[in-house]
């Protein structure tokens, strides 16, 4: 497999760096997918009633099972530092673990910076871990929307886990990033057919499956927003396999090829394993590319998926990105995608929302990818939008989801065409 590189990619394109008013979703929402992934973990958000309402609204109502997240609500006097919040937190944790003996990992999730809640959750986690060991391991991370975008909650969670992962000298592949179970199973099956293993996953479904890490560990990321986790694994001695992210047929093939090269898989065997799923993915994407081809595209910064998705939409769907905004541009992670992204779009990092709204209006794109807070106002102005959050909650990785990924972008355009035709 050889990649048809553009004459000039975007790795060296100057980046417009903006530091102003942002429009982002809270990092606490990462708990919605993490608590489903880690079956014996519990996420206890330490914060206000507002945080509790946000989680309930984001996660919906759990009817058939008690959810594995909750909120330790700090009243106003706690937020002001006038009460001993540590004593109350210890009491809440003890009650929770008595009621839920199945919990093996407990995450204390800060909803605000420690300067606001007047509570050092890192020390609290160390104290509680010592009290409840070895049955329960207590860790902490921040999901504060003041400090993070919504996908960074996962990064903070996984990075918090890395220092306590067991040590190993074994040569193993560690795949890093939460995927829906069906997508993870497809990935593991492809790697097994290529003869690659053993394969470990972070985050694991259960604490007993927690991966080990050491100097012979090589790791591949499946999410582009895991910069802190990447750095934490490198500090543990693991080595990163750089690759485009597995979105679409081309991205998936390039990701698998990078891993296969690391493990000495022959070209012939690689082609034998991937030819059929590649053909299915190409056919599925082609059905949507008819709608997307030559349409212009504008990304507001939201999920950190923007650069790999722009690469997929430009190269496999024929779209023309005008601006690709991302909250953080980590070239060590998305550099291979930048190499494949054809020259042309503005690359922006961070956000000054008013300035970017002005640029979007001047560009007048056919499709705008943005957060929930901007979508309705832009639709009211006549622009067609795609909610960025759907790209995180929908299975979109690897071959079998390539058509679904393209469909997320083609549907708003088809809907607009149908509505325009009906009005006519």
UniProtKB/TrEMBL annotation:
Which pathway? Answer: Porphyrin-containing compound metabolism; bacteriochlorophyll biosynthesis (light-independent)
Task: Using the record's annotation, list all stretches that form the Nitrogenase/oxidoreductase component domain.
Answer: 32-402
Gene3D superfamilies this protein is in?
Nitrogenase molybdenum iron protein domain
**Which cofactors does the annotated protein need, by name?**
[4Fe-4S] cluster
> Biological process GO terms, please?
light-independent bacteriochlorophyll biosynthetic process; photosynthesis, dark reaction
Q: How is the cofactor bound?
A: Binds 1 [4Fe-4S] cluster per heterodimer. The cluster is bound at the heterodimer interface by residues from both subunits.
Q: Subunit comment for this entry? A: Protochlorophyllide reductase is composed of three subunits; BchL, BchN and BchB. Forms a heterotetramer of two BchB and two BchN subunits.
Gene Ontology molecular function terms on file: 4 iron, 4 sulfur cluster binding; ATP binding; metal ion binding; oxidoreductase activity, acting on iron-sulfur proteins as donors; oxidoreductase activity, acting on the CH-CH group of donors, iron-sulfur protein as acceptor
- Write the protein's name: Light-independent protochlorophyllide reductase subunit N
Q: What does this protein do?
A: Component of the dark-operative protochlorophyllide reductase (DPOR) that uses Mg-ATP and reduced ferredoxin to reduce ring D of protochlorophyllide (Pchlide) to form chlorophyllide a (Chlide). This reaction is light-independent. The NB-protein (BchN-BchB) is the catalytic component of the complex.
């Amino acid at each position: 497999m050889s990649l048809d590189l553009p004459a000039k990619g975007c790795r060296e394109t100057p980046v417009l760096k903006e530091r102003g008013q942002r429009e982002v979703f809270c990092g606490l929402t990462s708990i919605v997918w993490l608590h489903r992934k880690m079956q014996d973990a519990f996420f206890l958000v330490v914060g206000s009633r507002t945080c509790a309402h946000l989680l309930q609204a984001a996660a919906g109502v759990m009817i058939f099972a008690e959810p594995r997240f909750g909120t330790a609500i700090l009243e106003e006097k706690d937020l002001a530092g006038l009460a001993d919040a540590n004593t109350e937190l210890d009491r809440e944790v003890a009650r929770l673990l008595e009621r839920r003996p199945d919990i093996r990992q407990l995450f204390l999730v800060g909803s605000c910076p420690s300067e606001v809640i007047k509570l050092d959750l890192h020390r609290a986690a160390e104290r509680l871990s010592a009290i409840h060991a070895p049955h329960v391991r207590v860790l902490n991370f921040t999901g504060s929307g003041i400090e993070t975008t919504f996908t960074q909650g996962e990064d903070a969670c996984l990075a918090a886990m890395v220092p306590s992962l067991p040590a190993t000298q074994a040569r193993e592949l560690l795949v890093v990033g939460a995927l829906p179970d069906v997508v993870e199973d497809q990935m593991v099956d492809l790697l097994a057919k290529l003869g690659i293993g053993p394969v470990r996953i972070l985050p694991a479904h259960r604490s007993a499956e927690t991966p080990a890490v050491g100097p012979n560990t090589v790791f591949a990321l499946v999410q582009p927003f895991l910069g802190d986790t990447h750095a934490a694994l490198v500090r543990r001695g693991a080595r990163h396999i750089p690759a485009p992210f597995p979105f679409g047929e081309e991205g998936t093939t390039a990701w698998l090829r990078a891993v296969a090269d690391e493990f000495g898989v022959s070209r012939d065997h690689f082609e034998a394993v991937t030819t059929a799923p590649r053909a299915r993915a190409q056919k599925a994407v082609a059905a949507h590319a008819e709608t997307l081809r030559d349409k212009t595209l504008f990304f507001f910064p939201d999920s950190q998926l923007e650069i790999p998705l722009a690469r997929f939409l430009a190269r496999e769907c024929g779209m023309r990105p005008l601006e690709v905004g991302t909250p953080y541009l980590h070239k060590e992670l998305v550099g291979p995608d930048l190499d494949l992204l054809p020259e042309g779009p503005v690359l922006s990092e961070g956000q000054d929302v008013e300035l970017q709204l002005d640029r979007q209006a001047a560009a007048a794109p056919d499709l705008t990818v943005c957060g929930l807070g901007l979508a309705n106002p832009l639709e009211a102005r006549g622009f067609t939008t795609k909610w960025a959050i759907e790209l995180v909650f929908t299975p979109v990785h690897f071959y079998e989801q390539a058509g679904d990924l393209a469909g997320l972008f083609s549907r708003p355009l088809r809907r607009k065409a149908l509505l325009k035709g009906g009005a006519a």
